[in-house]
Each structure stands twice: as structure tokens, then as C-alpha cells.
Amino acid sequence: MSLTIRHTAETGTLLDGTGRGDGTYEVMTEVRKRVGHWKWFRSMGQWGLVSSRDRQPKDYCINAAAEALRAAGFTVALEIDRAHRPAAEAEADRAARQEDRVDALDAKADRRAAKATAADEASRRAHESLPEWGEPVKIGHHSENRHRRSLERAWNAMGRSVEAHRDADVAAQRAEAARHTTDYRHSPVTVANRIDKFEAEQRGDQRILDGGERGRPPYVTIDKPASGAYREKVIARMAQRADEIQHWKDVRAAQIADGLTLGLTKADVAKGDAVKVRGEWYRVVRANAKTVTVESRFIAGHNGTVPYQEISAHRKAADPTEAKA
């Protein structure tokens, strides 16, 4: 039986060619236990790698699945496309998928709420069937068994009602969280942190391409420049990341222009200034390249550091408002 593990930026990594009862499910379940990331996507009826869209292929997970399937007697072909989509297009696609997810979760929350309402009604009817005024069970009376069955039905109905409301609350919370995911992803602090993270990863990959010394004496390691297929993987990864860095820098520039964030740098802040972070004002001790050192508000002589992107307001030391404060 022929199978294909295919990766593209648009679809991510998927396993094609499987069928019900062909034995692939059992093999892939073991692969998932061993290396993780693989998941059965019920909506597509396929195995795939989680969070693989618009990412470089996870070669370790792909090769682990291919080897396990081949060992089980399957013929497995690999079709790996390392080309990436423009970052703006990928983000637009991600936002559209998130909207679809929100709609699906809203519909699920509505169904759960309707189920909870029906369970409430069933519980009310079950309790109304009980004898009035909490009449106790009459031991040995002909009504004993009927009374006990009514109590059990009322108890079970109440339990189903409580569980239905719990499920409805969870569904509503998930829908509400999903509704704000895109906003969180584009918050100014998150965008700035993402740029810093990507730039650090770029520097790390550049060191892999260049080679050189790593560590400190006497524990110095000389790394050779990456070569062959591994070098091509690193280059593809860096090309995609460079596009993403530029995209998010454009987003941040627009946020600064719109007044959503200050966009402060070392040139804008000086010793003695005041900065506002998470609703509190702090005195600046020193302006660094990436952070600002500020005085502790609680322990004299102790300082802390704050990234520039987390500063929500800034006052110069010579500002009359600040002097008055």
C-alpha cells in the first residue's frame, strides 16, 4: 500500500493515502506516543502534524512516521516543499481560519446552552413527580419502590443538568477566548517581543551557516559551517523568518504611527525620567540598549529592568508635570 507524507506551506504536513482498517491508525498512534505532534484530524479524515501550516517542515517527526510505516510494510513517499508563503498572506489566512473557529465554537456553545436548558426542564419535571413536602420513603409500603425510583430519577436528572451547565460554560469560555486570539497576537507588546525573538533566532541560524568558535576557554568548541542538505534547510528557514520579521516590523511601525505604542528606544529615555509600566510609575536609573533600569518602588536600593515595549507612558525629568508629581 502506497502512502505519501506531503508538506506545503498552505496545507501543512499531512499523511495521504490511508484508509479505514488498513493498519495505519495503529502505527501512527504509536508514532504519536513516541515523538508527539502527529494528530488525527477528524474534520479532514487525515493524520497531520499540529501547527505545521506556514512553518518549515518538522523533519524529525516526518522521518519518524515514515520509518514506522515502512517497518509495518507500507510504501511511503515524501513530498516536502520548503517554499514559504508571503507573511502577510499567511497571517490573513490564519485570521480567516480563526474566524471560522470562532463561529464553530459559538455554534457549539449555543448547542450546549440549549442542552443545558433541556436538562433543567427534565430535572424540574423529575422533582415535581416526587411527593410533596419531602415525604420520606415508607419502608415496606407498596409505594416504596416507586418512591425510590422517583428519587433516583430526580437525582440523576439534577446531575445531568449540572454537567450540561458545566459543559455549556466551558464551550462559552473557549469561544470567548478564541474571539480575542487574533487581537492578542497583534497586541503591541506581543508584536515587539516576536520581532526580538525572530531576530535572535536569525542570529543563531547565521552562526550555524558561518561556523566558528562556541563557548569560553577552556571549553571552546569549533563548529564547521553547515553544509549539504542541512545548510539548505537552514537557508530556507532563514528566508521565511526574514519575511516574517519584515512583516511584523511593518505592523509595529503602523502601531507606532497610530499611537497604539510609544516605540521608545535608548535615545528617548534618560536617567531621572519616569516611565509607566503596567499602571505604575517608576524612576529611570539607566537606559540600556533593549531595556530600562528602574528603581524598585518597594525595596530601597534595588533596581529592576523593563523592556522598552512594555512602557505605556514616559515623562522627561524636566517635564513640569513630573516635577510637580
From TrEMBL:
Residues 88-113, 121-130 have a biased composition (Basic and acidic residues). InterPro entries: DUF3560. Residues 88-145 are annotated as: Disordered. This is DUF3560 domain-containing protein.
